[in-house]
Write a structure and sequence with these properties.
138 residues; alpha/beta; four-stranded mixed beta sheet; globular; VOC family protein; Glyas_Bleomycin-R_OHBP_Dase
């Protein structure tokens, strides 16, 4: 099989704040920005990796979600327990300093984990966990 990850989805509750975080703080490029019926889907991705995309989407857009489920999703987003993504870098400490300077909510400063990686963690404006791990030297 010839499979690769093309897009992952993260919810947002404020498209402008999400755009500022992923574009301005993380340095991702905007690939698409589509509005429909007062909602926005914003596709971003790392520069130089055109086949890897993150779609920032309004969680209420799915017509199959009930009102109770919408409330649960909103509550989980507010607590930061609904969605997450793991990114990788060759310099987690330098990346941490740049992201922290962008006013992101720090969850964990860079630390060597017992499972063999050095990483840090932030929350994006919607509460999604953004964990950044250092790539191991080859």
């Amino acid at each position: 099989m010839d499979l690769h990850i093309h897009a992952s989805f993260l919810p947002h509750d404020d498209p402008d704040a999400a755009l500022a975080f992923y574009r301005d703080t993380l340095g991702f490029e905007v690939r698409n920005d589509v509005g429909y019926e007062g909602m926005r889907w914003i596709t971003v991705g790392p520069v130089g990796q055109p086949a890897t995309n993150i779609v920032l989407h309004p969680p209420a857009a799915d017509p199959g979600i009930t009102e109770d489920e919408r409330r649960t999703i909103a509550e989980m987003m507010a607590k930061g327990t609904y969605a997450s993504i793991v990114l990788a870098t060759s310099d987690v400490d330098g990346t941490f300093e740049r992201v922290q300077a962008g006013d992101a909510e720090v969850v964990q400063e860079p630390v060597d984990q017992p499972y063999g990686v050095r990483d840090c963690a932030f929350r994006d404006p919607a509460g999604n966990m953004v964990r950044i791990q250092q790539l191991k030297a080859s």
